[in-house]
Amino acid sequence: MASGASKLVMSFMASVxxxxxxxxxxxxxxxxxxxxxxxxxxxxxxxxxxGGGGAGAALISRGxxxxxxxxxxxxxTTTTQSALFSLDSYGAHGDGERDDTAALxxxxxxxxxxxxxxxxxxxxxxxxxxxxxxxxGPCESTIKLMVKGTLVASPDMSNWNESNRRYWIVVRGVDGxxxxxxxxxxxxxxxxxENSCKINKALPCKGAPTALSFHTCNNLxxxxxxxxxxxxxxxxxxxxxxxxxxxLSISAPGTSPNTDGIHDGTHGLHVTRLVCGPGHGISxxxxxxxxxxxxxxxxxxxxxxxxxxxNGARIKTWQGGSGYAKDIVFQNMVMNSVKxxxxxxxxYCDSAxxxxxxxxxxxEVSNVVFKNIAGTxxxxxxxxxxxxxxxxxxxxxxxxxxxxMVDGNGATGSICQNAKWRKSGTVVPQPCTGTN
Length: 436
Ligand SMILES: *[C@@H]1O[C@H](CO)[C@@H](O)[C@H](O)[C@H]1NC(C)=O
Ligand SMILES: *[C@@H]1O[C@H](CO)[C@@H](O)[C@H](O)[C@H]1NC(C)=O
Ligand SMILES: *[C@@H]1O[C@H](CO)[C@@H](O)[C@H](O)[C@H]1NC(C)=O
Known about the structure:
The chain has 436 residues and is mainly beta. The protein has one domain (83-349, 359-428): 3 Solenoid (Pectate Lyase C-like), CATH 2.160.20. The chain has helices at 33-39, 69-74, 101-112, 190-194; strands at 10-14, 21-25, 59-62, 81-86, 95-99, 118-122, 127-130, 133-136, 143-147, 150-153, 167-172, 178-180, 184-186, 210-228, 235-251, 260-264, 269-276, 279-287, 293-307, 311-318, 322-338, 340-348, 364-377, 381-386, 393-405, 413-417, 419-428. Residues 1-79 have low confidence and may be disordered. The protein binds 2-acetamido-2-deoxy-beta-D-glucopyranose (3 copies). Belongs to the glycosyl hydrolase 28 family. Its main location: secreted.
């Protein structure tokens, strides 16, 4: 593939106490079938884990059905066993003040070496302070990370290296991982926000950590988790296939800079049942910055409620990029007081100085469907299709759209430049009256 293929495909920009609940699944769906198969193996005594945990490290949990429900269901007639690796058995304090990074790392190593499916447990009602930590695979058996309590980031920014400050918790090279438990991952981001150049203009612009990153994996499931106040991006998934992210709630204050919800560099993304607001709404992009190539396709976004967001359904690309964003559907959306309900912007620019005009190349935008979208906008232009002169947007379909000014404040309108669109059903506002 060309260098610099799409990195950032979709970000749910989290802001003002944005509450985000959604079900999202990748091209191949993760199932617990693999876990079930592996669980049939017999595990013995704790000593068989050999993972180098401390004394009393591994506790066998017989019939761990509540923890591995799907597996238990699939292997209902088999006695299943899984090994439990609780942070508390590895010397964690769980007081939210003393550092528990080593305890998590040790519990993880032991679990990863387990001959039977392993559960790493973050116990309920307690808080575990963590510095940067990388949980690596491959592992001997499937692993489940049960976060019942809270993982909280160290507030001390000096725990982060200048050269290495873009992550907090990283999971790398683990196949079949399930993360669940209903607990909380707290990025404790206030200090980072205060030191962001977007908040304090006197400071140089430097990236801050992504709270939870998954790299290089197959069959990842993250289901039922609360993420709050990340230092920068809340969650990122890179180089993974078969990803299912479900029932997540992500929130940070509106004043927090770039605390995006989820970044997912993938093809074949399916998002349903998303509630978001206030915040930045749903964006595909930005794509093509620094003349980079982006390849984004097969994105399906269905059943969304946005309230008070800056954008509704947005695709944004920088001038001078290359590649494409195509085969994208936004449908069944309700918007309340959204600033830019429908927007394709091929002239996106988010830098301190004005972006140079670069008409020689662009990330091409095509086959985008906006369907069954209704609600209110706070700005007059409810539909914006601002496309490139030499690479116009084409195959843009607008179907059954009704966007009105909030409080019935006059008629809505649209802006259009270099866009080839068609409409069906009733579309309010009429797109691109005047020049096209
Ligand atoms: C900072 O990075 C260097 C080199 O990667 C490493 O040796 C050192 O342990 C790191 N320090 C901290 C506090 O992580
Ligand atoms: C991922 O899950 C699929 C479907 O259950 C399975 O066929 C495949 O072997 C799994 N891949 C890995 C690497 O675990
Ligand atoms: C399209 O975006 C560019 C850059 O922001 C802006 O200068 C231009 O006026 C926009 N076009 C329309 C028709 O608003």
